[in-house]
Amino acid sequence: MSSHDVAVLIGRFQPFHKGHAALLEKALATAPRVIVVLGSSLQARNAKNPFTWEERAAMIGTVLDDELKSRVSFVPMRDYYDDARWSMAVLSAIEGMTQPGQRVALVGYLKDASSQYLNRFPDWEFIGMPQQGDFDATSVRQIYFEGEDAAVTRVLLEGLLPISVVHYLKGWARLPHFANMQAEHLSIESKKKKWGTGPFITVDAVVTAADHVLLVKRGFAPGKDLWALPGGFLESRERVMQGAIRELREETGLALLETTLEGAFRSAAVFDHPDRSLRGRTITHAHHFDLRQGKLPEVAGADDAAEARWTPIAELKGMEDRFFEDHFNILNHFLALTN
């Protein structure tokens, strides 16, 4: 008889590979009920997170028979880029799915610093597993997106993924999402070879006026056609606010004096989560400017922005899955969009 009532498995599973399958098998052997927390959910697709949480749940479901499926539940979890807030959200979700007094186990593999989140649940018994093979999801995505010979790619993937997931990915490769994510992956890898992986310093501008916020639509990969904050890389002789104002003007054409923008400045915050950007270690300084005026200034997309527009703040929460990288979280920080 199991000594636990529930086993929790946390991961991104992008995609679900044999190492993940071993963890799931251990979780099913640990407790009669398993809750799989699917990280990096509720956001736009990108080369690091190409599959939605629903697609990942379906992917995992392919390795389970009907009896096992009845024992497994899935919980989508957004990236807060704030470890304390994220762990509280996970705890709240699990508490909402369990009964008081139930014994919870956390099954996982402490890989490196990226796995330290597993230590944030001291009330759950941690059941560790050894590494299952010398590979990870990053290497799987490289094979999937970079393989030029379909037959060779399939053979390589069969060594790393459950065969049912190989079939799933073969079907997914016929969808339009594959070509978009492949192009983004190749673009990012090319830029990494040219510029390295950081650390980089960037600046962003959160500009509000009359219950609207100024957004741009990205014109190029990564994140082509996703909504973002006006911003970019800091130049060598700039202060961070100067850089934010320069990028704001270049991408939106906002024709306000620098002194006007400085007078509208309300606060700034640094966003430095190691995983916030696909381009590498990128630390951004975001600045909030509140124009507090009834008439919205004219704007137009330019430079790296295909479009610029004033968006009602009330609409932002419904746009979470259309934002570039962590820009929804930056807006959430300044504008309190979610709990």
Automatic annotation (TrEMBL):
Keywords: Hydrolase, Nucleotidyltransferase, Transferase
Top-level taxon of the source organism: Bacteria
Cofactor(s) it depends on: Mg(2+)
UniProt name for this protein: Bifunctional nicotinamide-nucleotide adenylyltransferase/Nudix hydroxylase
Keyword Transferase: yes
One term of GO molecular function: nucleotidyltransferase activity
InterPro entries: Cyt_trans-like, NUDIX_hydrolase-like_dom_sf, NUDIX_hydrolase_CS, NUDIX_hydrolase_dom, Rossmann-like_a/b/a_fold
Keyword match Nucleotidyltransferase: yes
Domain Nudix hydrolase: from-to ranges: 198-334
Gene3D superfamilies assigned to the protein according to its UniProt record, in alphabetical order: HUPs (3.40.50.620), Nucleoside Triphosphate Pyrophosphohydrolase (3.90.79.10)
